[in-house]
Design a protein that fits this description.
By secondary structure, the chain is α+β, with helices and mostly antiparallel strands. The chain has helices spanning about 65-75, 100-115, 120-135, 140-150, 185-190, 200-215, 220-225, 235, 245-250, 275-290; strands at about 5-15, 25-40, 45-50, 80-90, 150-160, 160-165, 175-180, 255-260, 265-270, 295-300, 310-315. The longest helix has 20 residues, at about 200-215.
Length: about 325
């Protein structure tokens, strides 16, 4: 048992989902981060991190996975044993794809399985949020919750978690395009300010209510009309060159709607079928090349029904 290891995977997530600022999110099937945990002396240490270009801190108190793992050890009352982590980053940094959340979610799932603790989901969420908040300087449950739970979720309240799982209409697909840009979440959040006009807030509430109804009715026309962000995207648009043109390319190719994923620079589109999604992916990729340059990473995925999970155990 002493040399047992557990590896967990946690997927990329799209948060906000246009009109659902800080409350809506969903995971992709891939890409994602992997965290491997093994028993170690009390506390948390990090054996290695790959896929980050040497940029992420190895000190566990400054690393999202390390903080999340320690939070879970504390929640479990574990003082005799600790963990050592190996982190494999499959998500680009500062991408708007929930990279901090994925590392934190994979860490708590791996540590929970290593200790065979079977901690309640609420505990895993709380511990992962503590870790993710370190990386983003504030906690974003709309990344953490879908990364752990899977599906399209609305987080009414993060702590204690009050999570509403929303239906996903048959055929609904996501396209995500990640340009060769980085946007730090904290800096993007600073652009939002602290006030919102009543007109913008009212329109956002109306869109969110309509989107939830559209999901329950599988009403793609209403869904398309609802995918509008009047709060965050207008203030962050200057961070992504050609944002309006890329969104237009997605809709012209058949997307129901297109918006920033999280704080950007990644963009997501929702589509009514895989065939349409493939066409939209090509159009968005071409538009990103034209307006931003470089070679973007493009993903086509259903909304994943499963979140973070154990993918291997070894003794």
């Amino acid at each position: 048992m002493a040399d047992r290891t557990v590896t967990a995977f946690a997927p990329a997530t799209v948060s906000n989902v246009a009109c659902g600022f800080d409350v809506l999110g969903f995971p992709l099937e891939a890409p994602g981060d992997e965290v491997t945990a093994r028993f170690a002396p009390p506390g948390v240490c990090i054996d290695s991190i790959t896929g980050d270009g040497g940029r992420l801190p190895r000190e566990p108190t400054r690393n999202t996975a390390g903080v999340a793992a320690q939070a879970l050890l504390t929640a479990l009352g574990e003082r005799r044993r600790g963990v050592a982590l190996r982190i494999a980053k499959g998500l680009p940094l500062s991408s708007g794809l929930g990279g901090s959340a994925a590392s934190a979610a994979a860490a708590v799932v791996a540590v929970d399985a290593l200790f065979e603790a079977h901690a309640p989901l609420d505990t895993l969420i709380a511990c992962a949020i503590e870790g993710e908040g370190l990386g983003a300087r504030t906690a974003h449950p709309d990344n953490i919750v879908p990364a752990l739970c899977g599906g399209l979720v609305l987080v009414r309240h993060p702590n204690p978690p009050d999570i509403i799982r929303l239906p996903v209409p048959d055929g609904l697909m996501a396209v995500v395009v990640h340009p060769e840009l980085e946007i730090e979440t904290a800096k993007a959040r600073a652009l939002l300010g602290t006030t919102v006009s009543l007109a913008d807030a009212t329109r956002q509430w109306a869109n969110l209510g309509a989107l939830v109804h559209a999901l329950h009715r599988a009403d793609f026309a209403l869904l398309a009309r609802s995918l509008e962000d009047t709060i965050a995207e207008p203030r962050r648009a200057l961070l992504v060159p050609g944002l309006a043109q890329i969104k237009r390319a997605a809709v012209d190719a058949g997307a129901l709607g297109c918006s920033l994923s999280g704080s950007g620079p990644s963009l997501f589109a929702l589509c009514r079928s895989e065939e349409v999604a493939r066409r939209v992916a090509m159009a968005m990729t071409d538009a990103v090349r034209k307006h931003i340059g470089g070679e973007p990473q493009t993903y086509v995925s259903p909304i994943a029904s499963q979140g973070a999970r154990v993918i291997s155990c070894a003794s």
